[in-house]
Amino acid sequence: MREKRFNTQAVHFQKKESAYHVSKAKPIYQTTAFTFSDLDDMESFYEGEKSYLYSRYSNPNTDDLGVGIALLEGAEDGVATSSGMSAILAGVLAVAKEGDHVLASEDLYGGTYQLFEQELPNMGIDVSFVSFGDLETVEKAITDRTVLIYTESITNPLLRVEDLEGVISLAKKHTIYSMIDNTFATPYLLQPAKIGADLIVHSATKYIGGHSDVNAGVLVGTAVLIQKAKSKIVTLGCNLTPFEAWLGCRGLKTLSLRMQRQCENAANLAKSFNKSAGVSKVYYPTDVSAKGNGAMVSIDLAEEVDVEEFFKNLSWVKIAPTLAGVETTVSYPLRTSHRTIPDELRSELGIGKQLVRISVGIEDETDIIEAFQHAIKQAQIKNL
Ligand SMILES: *Cc1c(COP(=O)(O)O)cnc(C)c1O
Questions:
Q1: Does any domain span residue 1?
Q2: The whole model's pTM is what?
Q3: Ligand 1: distance of its center to the CA of 321 in Å?
Q4: Can you give the CATH number for the domain in which 266 is found?
Q5: Is any atom of ligand 1 closer than 6 Å to the C-beta of 361?
Q6: Under a CB-based contact definition with an 8 Å cutoff, are residues 164 and 195 in contact?
Q7: Which residues contact 271 (CB under 8 A, 6 or more apart)?
Q8: Shared domain check, 343 and 246
């Protein structure tokens, strides 16, 4: 063969792939598809001997993230998706179809509430929202069309800790699937698959990524259900990109270190709020797990604290409508995550105008405590 001409050379300059470059960090398979040496080789994908054909179907980086979380959760299999929202959608569609009914907790993450309240009914899937504080109420809401019970292990923003064993055993009693959003707890604190949850979902955008630089979701669960969810993800195009999966995997490696520090900082910040006159109520759970109680702290500022002034005086603490990064951030649920929840339900849930949600980071604990003490003090003074 003669040498390649210019335009051909411009795209075919790479050395042939060798299986022998064993790099220490996993390469990013930033590719839409995989190539084959001949037709028999390609046939081997369809026969299940080769794993990769087209990156929307599967990709080594996205597989790593799904399988990595499944291993930590003690679940049979897992799949990574483009966002927490698409992981939730894929999980629901793996078990529910037109005519079915889903029973969901009323204090869900705002985006999930919107998906369940607006989109699922358009697909012919009915959703009832009930208070999960009392499982008898939940049981009464089960109908003969109910296929799924859906809740969150730790709720947002009031940090109610779900009775997972109760919810899962109720589902089993009625032969209904259970699905748990484990984003706030992470597998570091809780592993709902180990106590029988069928599907567990994560917004990997939060603690799994951990650095506020990747939007991703992960769904784990029984092999049969994950297979069904994968087929929805492929068809709906909810796949995660290789680079974002790679970032998610990098984040996962430090999940336990970050969670350990963030949980400790959060527990101490909550303690400091208990002693503060500027705080009328502290929401911080005490019964999540032996390893810690999560890294989210919510507070009701006392009536005499001006919320606008509080947010203006946070010094290095940033206002951000997300959570779980290594930096401490604050959000205002009334105007962000819970904006779309009807007023009546919002006040029933206890999400008022003095409520502030704090995502505690890995900084020095004393600096975090001082930053909030300062903001509260400034907001009190200016109000007088
Ligand atoms: C952020 C979040 C989601 C949605 O995840 P995205 O990655 O933003 O799509 C779902 N559930 C909980 C509890 C969340 O915090």
A1: no
A2: 0.94
A3: 11
A4: 3.90.1150.10
A5: no
A6: yes
A7: none
A8: no
